[in-house]
Amino acid sequence: MPKTRSTSKSSELLPLKLYAAASPSGFRVATILEFLGLEYKIQTVNLKAKEQKEQWYLDLNPNGKIPTLVDPNTGFTITQTAAVAQYLVDTYDPDHKVSFKYGSEEYYKQLEYINLSVSEFAAINSQLFFFKRMAGTNDEFAITHLSNEVNRIISVFEQLLSKNTKSGLYFIGDHYSIVDASIYGWSRYLAMNEIDVTQFKLFKQWYDNFDQDETVQRGVTRLLHN
Ligand SMILES: N[C@@H](CCC(=O)N[C@@H](CS)C(=O)NCC(=O)O)C(=O)O
Predict the structure, then answer these.
(1) Which candidate, 159, 151, 165, places its Cα nearest to that of 120?
(2) What pLDDT, on the 0 to 100 scale, is given for residue 8?
(3) Beta-carbon neighbour count of residue 104 at 10 Å?
(4) Strands (E), the chain
């Protein structure tokens, strides 16, 4: 069972350090840090300049991608957004503001949806983004296949949202969680990937609400203007 630190004494905590960029994975973690009310400093990693592949960064994150979180309060360095999200709630969310109680049904739903978010939604969107904007060729087969997959996953999200009694507001239960933050990352880039979400009514409603949330916007703004 995870051990949490008391956030009531968060003023005694040293600021956490987030290595990130204004990109889907950066927005996911910044949003969670904001929801938890944690102090954090951002070091922007210049992805275009390939700073993420420089040795000093690879020493922190051998996978050479953002984000990386360094927590001076525990001495831990964590990479991979799903692991960072789990670490943050295990360590700093004893009251389950953005998570669910260990061992509950909602806890396992959280695990399930986060896996869907990182292993399919994020990974496939990221490949689609590459073929649409970076590959320099027009590979119609890849673009059609990946666009169909993204649409399929959003239709799964639509079903998940409809199953929640708070239909269209939160993925699980009656409050935002690391699941919403995780799915939000690539949801911000669907228009850029030319994915039209108008047919997914609950997903669109969920996205608009989350995107307009003041706390979410604080994290987004910090990354955009760092
Ligand atoms: N599985 C990783 C994916 C992270 C990722 O794809 N980060 C992108 C930005 S959103 C990145 O650093 N791209 C630069 C690169 O691939 O070199 C995670 O969840 O943290």
Answers:
(1) 151
(2) 44
(3) 12
(4) 16-20, 40-44, 68-71, 76-79
102: its two tokens: 């260990």
Residues 98 and 33: beta-carbon distance below 8 Å:
no
> Do 195 and 132 touch, CB atoms closer than 8 A?
no
Ligand 1 in contact with 177 (CB < 6 A)? Answer: no
Q: Alpha-carbon distance 187 to 127, whole Å? A: 14
Type of residue found at 131: F
Its pTM stands at 0.95
CATH class of 105-213: mainly alpha
Distance of CA 50 from the midpoint of ligand 1 (Å): 12
Contacts of 10 (CB under 8 A, 6+ apart): 37, 38, 39, 92
Q: Is the CB of 65 under 6 A from ligand 1?
A: yes
Which pLDDT tens digit goes with each residue over 147-179?
A: 999 999 999 999 999 999 888 899 999 999 999
Domain boundaries, the chain: 7-95+217-224, 105-213
Helix (H, G, I), strand (E, B) or coil at 25: helix
Atom of ligand 1 nearest to the CA of 21: 9
Q: Write out pLDDT tens, residues 114-140.
A: 999 999 999 999 999 999 999 988 899
Mean pLDDT of the chain: 95
Measured from the CB, is residue 52 less than 6 Å from ligand 1? yes
Give me the mean pLDDT over the 76-94 stretch. Answer: 98
The preferred substitution site among 25, 78, 192 for testing ligand 1, maximizing ligand atoms within 8 Å of CB, is 25
Looking at the domain 7-95+217-224, which fold is it?
Glutaredoxin (3.40.30)
